[in-house]
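Sample entry (248 residues):
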Amino acid sequence: VSDKMKSTFALMCKFAATDGTVLVCGQSGTGKELIVRAIHQASKRKSGPFVVVNCGAIPSNLIESEFFGHEAGSFTDAKELRIGKFEAADGGTLFLDEIGELTLEAQVKLLRIIEEGTFSRVGGNKPIAVDVRVMAATNQDLSTMVQERKFREDLYWRLNVLSLSVCPLQERKEDIPMLVDYFLDRYATPLGIKQPVVSDKAMDLLMAYDWPGNVRELQNCIYSAMTIASGPTIEPADLPRRIYSDSE
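Predicted structure, serialized as tokens:
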């Protein structure tokens, strides 16, 4: 394991022992959600829900309904009561992925509930109190966005209580064998096969490649190789063409 990941693991253990808000920064595909899930699983909230919100995928007109839920009849398509993400995460963790994608208007609403711990459903008046730990992730530079007035400074400091940066995979290639073993173990059962091994030549290619898609690209590569391999050993020919063409 690389020194960078050893430092990351040490921080994760410390973060799991507290209930503070966590902000994880890093390029797309570096494994930010895996880190947040691991912190949740090691925390006192591990038996509670882990709810994921992709902030970049919510239309701005549905932000309130998505976060807070709505009462039946509160707007045209609201035919029945709907629980929002904060209510669904009560007693557990709410993971706000790609937090930098939220509009400034949505950021105000998010700040209010993080500060107060209460909200009302859309179309309702009754305050609802929740006990939720918020963790967020971004592939953007939020401090620069604050300076450019694209991200609220007060929300930034609310989120950036415990912060952690994840390095790109090409800067910590010593972690590749460990990650490969993890994915081999993870996918063997779903694929209905005995866990294969990776040949030395195939591993050399994996170590030489620069992984622009980071851990997610490695994950997809191993899944593909396990599906294609005809025997108990993954060979260079089982890897995606780009992996070995880069080394030629």
